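Many groups now describe folds with learned vocabularies. In that spirit, our science desk offers one protein's residues alongside their backbone shape tokens.
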Amino acid sequence: MARPLYSKFILGYLIFGLLSVLTIATFSSGITRDYLIKDRANALYDEANDIAASCSLMYQGQHQDMDLFSTQLKNVSTYLHTETWVVNKSGVVIMDSKNGSRVHTTIPDFDPTATGNRSYTIGTYYKLFDQNVLSVSAPVTGNYTTYGYVLIHLPVSEIADSQSHILDILYMTCAIIFALSLVILVVFTITVYLPLRKIAAGANEYAAGNLNYRIKVNAHDEMGYLSNTLNYMSDELNKMEEYQRNFIANVSHDFRSPLTSIKGYLEAILDGTIPPEMYEKYLSRVISETERLHKLTESMLTLNSLDAKGFLSRTNFDINRVIKDTAASFEGTCDSRHIRFDLTFSDNIQMVYADMGKIQQVLYNLIDNAIKFSHDDSVIYIQASSKYEKIFVSVKDTGIGIPRDSIKKIWDRFYKTDLSRGKDKRGTGLGLSIVKEIIQAHGENIDVISTEGVGTEFIFSLPSSTSLEKFLDDRHILTFPYDLLQSPFLRGSLL
């Protein structure tokens, strides 16, 4: 089993505390001891030089009160917790700070130069002490002659006591830092670990299929943002799951209906229920239902391609020409119902940068809808105008309109209003979904304005192109012919 993150953090915290103590006990202890020894040695050496300077006055013929000097020697030694000797060149103690207890004592093998480059020694000083002492020496000179030495001895135990006091302070500081880091650990637990556990629990619930689970992390930081994001993701997955269920149900229904009709007609022909003279009629219905299935399949394939990214093939083209060509393809349908088109353009040529094939499909679906829900002997208005570096295209009819409660739903896949069911029995309910997907894929918007019983207007935008001159040079033309406007069902004008 993998070690939890929190356990790793606690382990790291404990290791940090242990390493801090070991560092202070080893490195800090040695560094502190060396520092104290050198510091005390320098201080004692300066004091020894001062005492040696006072002794030198005697050898320079100046009067020196020995009693006063001895008292001063005792006071200094008491203050410094040291033992001070004045010795001659032979190593015989002639004065000390301990009431003369060391006077006439001879230092065996006395060699003041044995310290080398160091100003101090550590040891029992020729075995004269029963403990280690820090010893410094300063020469007593006069008239370029060395008469003796001043020796000062400090018990190493005094340095050890100072070292212990400093280490106690370091240990106390370390304990305070450790306690403060414990506060940080508690804050980390509350602000990071516990929310992270809730998020992990939520992720496990989502993985198990429980998309209704809510991660309750009320924080205004990255953890709160992450929990809100995951909650939003679960909501979207729920919606997607519901959409998939509805999608499958709608597809099943829309495929089942024509398939049932086709099967029924063919079985009736095979078993003789339909007489031979009626074959043509019912085979035409079979073909019609087959075309309906084909249309549904094509629409679903289109939506599937729109769901994938990078499907657009953008070029520069004249939206006016595309509008006229698309409207002209409905001439046969419009003639039978006496429906006409009124085309209005703000300029002769209006270049856009978009996927021409997809925009043709958008126009076809919108015009097809307008024709289906328009009254006979009516006019459909199509307008293209330039504004704010965009081209706005409007398709407006004067038909039955869309109920107010259905306007927001018309973009849903397979959705049909109650009014459309009677008018558009062959429709798939995917046309407007395809339109919106294409326009949004271009990074543009489409809006609808509709009043029931008055009519409907769809307006969408496209990015305008700035390469008009190149386009005209490539086509070797200056203006587009308006021959299509000669058709009785197409009437055009410029704004």
